[in-house]
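Dear Dr. K.,

Following up on our conversation at the group meeting, I've run the structure prediction for Phospholipid phosphatase from Lentilactobacillus kefiri. I'm pasting the input sequence below exactly as I used it, so you can double-check it against your construct before we proceed with anything downstream. Let me know if the numbering doesn't match what you have in your notebook.
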Amino acid sequence: MGRRHSNAILKTVLKSAFILTLTGAAVLGSQSNGIKANAKSDTSISSELNPAPASYGYFVDQYKQNIKTNDTPETNPAIALFNNTFLKYWDAPDGTKTNTAVLQENLDKSIQISNGASQAEIDRSYLTDRRDLRYNLISGLGQYAPAFIKDADAQTDFNAVPDAPLPADSPYSSMQWADENSTLGSAVKLVDIAEDSAWSGTGTPKAYIKFTRPYRQSSQVKVNPYLVNVMAAAKATDYDFPSGHTTAAFEIGETLAYLFPERYQQLITRSSEVGYDRVLAGRHSPLAVMGGRVIGTAMTAATLNDPDNKQLISQAYQDTQKDLANAEDKSAQDSFSDYQTNLKNYTYRLTYGFSPIGDTTKPMVVPKGAEVLLKTRLPYLNDTQRREVLFTTGLPSGYPMTDDTEGWGRLNLFKAANGFGEFLNDTTVNMDASKGGFNAVDTWKNNISGNGGLTKEGTGSLSLLGNNSYKGGTTVKGGTLVAENDSALGHGSFKLSDGKLTLSAKNVVVKGNYTQSKQGTLNVNANDKVSVSGTAKLGGKLVIKNVKGLKSGVVILKSNKLSGKFAHHALPKGWHLDYTKHSVKLVK
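The predicted structure tokens came back this morning:
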């Protein structure tokens, strides 16, 4: 492919050095993984968060060993990555099916998906095939895409579908997708580095695995009509697994998501859509694009952890934020504007509906270095906490392509972008609003469970949208905590030491005691209330909004036993508070 330019960051390393590294990798512990807890975290990383070394050690350390001359699982981590997944279903390089049921289901899904393509999907999968993928991923930026295209000098020569099938020798896009000397040149350069490793990343595994593309396995697979001649003329050695386009899509999409996390979930959804487009076109099977997600994510983490890229990553992030933060064009098309659609599509494409084939109860494993993928999306957390997020939002074990040793296949970055799925222990979050972005305002959408509790510090605002059941209670010491669900505060007592609690739900429940000090402020709408199962000790300030048309006697807070009063309150003229043994009412 013309755009597969040489990868400057991959270096030829002696195989003997690779093997020597492996002997030490297996004994590496938490001290060698580069993860440091801040002062408010446990002094050591719990064993469940420790990375698990594979046969090659850790991918983020060994990814540069993926070179053409390292052409076996014993010497190349990009091949060995699939030892416990695809290479358990297909005996390479002999080409023997070792799990016929999974491979047949894989082909059946290829037939079903390709035959069910709508005209819009046929058109989109054609453009996905022909365009430079780096340009293709720009659509994930939605209403920020026009500014990116302009300031990166981005361009493509494929803007529409053809009137007839392309000739067999029709070339891919030959245009330079963007300019490394543009205003966003640093971002373009980082994306180029990421995309480079995709083609180097999949070429050697493909040559070793030698798995036939689905349209050559069965004539029932429907080929994209615009590409029928091109695909018929493809070389017999043009193999299926893993999908290079999908690998590149995740590397590009996850890199852009790092640089512009304001579109994090939309960009990785577009990455997953590229993989789906490959199945729609008949080019690749679901297992191949799932494999692309796995290796693409591992390659992205390796690129973002590589010290050689540190300065460029920092500059690219700063330049992208400066350029795009206020560049939203609300008139521009956004194919990823609907959160629920993105969630549904991304989640489906993690497993493509395969049934489990193994133990579904294995503990989650978080790969070494994977926490970098959340560094800008959850900037107020430390590395240990980001690993906890990945640990508590991962996929169950047992599904095809999920159980590689390090855990890359079980990462669910879409869910991880929504915050913790569980508090493994007491968790302190300190948000500095002066830093802007997610440091100033963020929302956790997951349903949070666990034995730990939450302490909110700093000046930023954190919203809890989930139906939470964590047991350790909630404390606010600074900034704002917004309860957007009746069960947002989980189980356990609530303490408002300083800062604000804002209600954005009708009946926020505290399954324990409620304590508000003189520095705390409770913000409520007149129709909202706090229901406390234990005692309530009041102090501080109460602010009530939207009382127009409200009937007198509305309960603002009720508890099993009430003591104290709000020291200050902001009420409309003519209204006052009525305190009883169990409640606070708004009366007129």
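Two things stood out to me. The first strand starts at residue 90 and ends at 91. The CA atoms of residues 347 and 414 lie 8 Å apart.

Best regards,
J.T.
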